[in-house]
Amino acid sequence: QVQLVESGGGLVQAGGSLRLSCAASGRTFSGYAFGWFRQAPGKEREFVAAINWSSTNRKYLDSVEGRFTISRDNAKNAVYLQMNSLKSEDTAVYYCAADPKYQTITAMTPYYWGQGTQVTVSS
To answer: pLDDT-based confidence at 106, cuts 50/70/90?
Structure first.
């Protein structure tokens, strides 16, 4: 049974930082791309960041470029999202996702999804 478990969410003041983690289990993720998505109350889910297997390709939502960094540790089947200079508009549930194809992540249709972790940024 494949599981993607997010952690690291919480309440932070504007300008602060959080580091989200996603632990993947249940199958081999060799070659898989990972991504982070978010959904704010009353809004549609949106793409935040993606990373391919070798970490040679990364893509970010324009509004988080330069503030967020996606990374991964293939030995641990883990992916991370370092979020700096947080803003109130970053408040959302953040989801980890995985797919064999990097393009599928960026197209917002990954096969595997986590349950999400809440990030709340107070202004």
So the answer is: confident
